[in-house]
Specification:
- The chain is globular, with a radius of gyration of 13 Å.
- It has a 6-stranded mixed sheet with strand order 3-2-4-5-6-7, covered by helices on one side. A two-stranded parallel sheet has the order 1-8.
- It has one helix spanning 9-22; strands at 5-8, 28-33, 39-44, 53-60, 77-82, 90-97, 100-104, 106-109.
- It is mainly β and 110 residues long.
Amino acid sequence: MSEPLTLPRPLAIRLLHAAQLAQPEPVQGWVLSDGSGQPARFVLGAERPPARVWARLWSEPAAPAVPQPAQLAEGERVLVISLDTRGVLELRAWTLQQGQLRELVLIAAG
């Protein structure tokens, strides 16, 4: 099993807030890393930025936070936010390995 991914809590809150503001439309964007490879900031947009990408992100306003394997490239890390919950928004991390969808442990800390 791989090590958990750690997302700074203020960044996780910004991601969830962006998804809430975009409702009923989905939000799309990218979590970019700092010089040490840690997640540092979020940029909106569907086009891949030239900077260091830590993960691709999108929201599902009316569906679970589970992507379809066809939505990911092999080895790509994605974060999916579900707004189709009662009370607490859901943020989950995924990757595609050897054609299989695999959930990653995601921790919001700090």
